[in-house]
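Record 1 of the preview.
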Amino acid sequence: MMEKYKFFDLPEFSTVKDILENERKNYVITLFGLCKILYAGRASSIATYSSRLITFKPDGSVLVHSNKKLKPVNWQPSSSEVKVELGDELKIYVERKRPKEVLEILMPIVYYLSLSKVDEGEFHLFGSESEMVEEVVKNPELISRDFIPLEREYQTPFGKIDLLGVTSTGYLVLEFKRAQAGLEAVSQLKRYVDYLSWKGEKVRGGIVAPSISKSALKLLKKYELEYFQLSPRLLSTIRLK
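->
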C-alpha cells in the first residue's frame, strides 16, 4: 500500500533528483529551499535567490510560491516535463513544449522535501447560476405565486434566456446572476424583452441575483424591468419594486 506522505529534512540533492524522477506521477511533491528562478518563453524574468515553496503535481504542473499573494511567482501548466541536474546547485528544468517555455530553478540548498498522496475526490459547486435556475424551476413561488416556468435557455438572436416563464400578465423573462448584477446584465435582459415584445407578446423582464449595483438598479427602473433578490446560499427572495 502506498504511503500517504513522506518527509525528508535537509535532503541530499541525489535524493531530490531520484524522487522527482520516480515519484512525481504518484505524489504532490513540495520543496522548500533557497532558490533562483529563471524563466524564458513568451517573455523572460529572473527571481533572485530567496526562500520559496515549489510544488510539483502529478499532472505535470509546477508552481513556485513566495510569502505573499494567491498567485505563484512562477508556474508551468500540466503536461510540463521536468529534468534534474546535479552539481554545486540542484538544477531543475521545467519545460513546456507548446508554446515553448522553460523554467529553470537553481537551488543551493533544500530545507525539506515532502510527498503527499493527495486524492482528487468529488467537487460540487453550490450557488451556481444553473443551480439558481433549477431551484426556481422547482419552486416558482420564489419569483411569484402565479409564475409558471416554461423553458430554460430559450434561444434568441441575442443569446439564451436563462429562464422563460409566464404569469397572469404575460411572459416573464429572467436573467440570473450568482454575484452582483451590473449594467451588462440589465442591457442583456432588455434585449431579450425587446425581442419577445417585438413578436407581439406581453413581456416583463427581471434580474435574479443576490444584489444589484446602484447604476444597474437605476437603469432597470428606467426600462421598467424588475429585480428579484435571490441568494445562491439561502435561496430566499425579496422582490424590490
